[in-house]
Amino acid sequence: MNPREFLTLAQRLSLETTEAAWRSAISRAYYAVFHVARQLLEDLGFTVPRADRAHGYLWLRLANCGDARVQQAGRDLNDLRRHRNEADYDLARSIQSRIAQIHEQLAAQIIQVFETATLEPTRTQITDAMKIYERDVLHDVTWHP
């Protein structure tokens, strides 16, 4: 499955007329970005863990990759996760259509940044920086040739 299909669904849901749809739009927007990020790191040679550990794994490496645009996208991925958690779990907090639209637009922008990160020279630069970050800071090397 192409993870960008989640973004297409988020865009449709954000235009619906119910709060449940808007909450679902935020969730789908996050997961579109999450899966694109996972795919990016796997394509770069990193072994991304499954389940809950994958969320922190992705944004920490991306936010410390040495490229300003990709680093910001990594931090934005983490922010989207926080908003996804609020949308999915905090039913007392009201969600409006405009908020869902803002999140799906941000998701589209992040995906675009990740797509350009697959091109040289950015690809090699971020891979090298994340390898150093894993080795020197995290002491958890998951990159493999």
Any overview of this molecule?
The structure is a single chain. By secondary structure, the chain is mainly α. It has one domain (4-138): Four Helix Bundle (Hemerythrin (Met), subunit A) (Up-down Bundle). The chain is 72% helix and 0% strand. The chain is built from six helices and no strands. The protein has helices at 4-14, 19-43, 53-62, 68-89, 97-116, 122-138. It is elongated and about 50 Å long. The model has no long low-confidence stretch (mean pLDDT 96).
Q: What letter string, H or E per element, gives the SSE order?
A: HHHHHH
- Biggest sheet layout: none
**So what's the CATH class?**
Mainly Alpha
Shape by Cα distribution:
elongated
Strand proportion, as a percent range, falls in under 5%
Number of helices: 6
CATH topology: Four Helix Bundle (Hemerythrin (Met), subunit A)
Using only C-alpha atoms, the radius of gyration works out to: 16 Å
Query: In total, how many domains does the architecture comprise?
Result: 1
Number of strands: 0
Mean pLDDT figure: 96
Portion of residues in helices?
over 70%
Q: At CATH's second level, what is the architecture?
A: Up-down Bundle
Low-confidence stretches: none
Distance between the termini: 26 Å
Structural class: mainly alpha
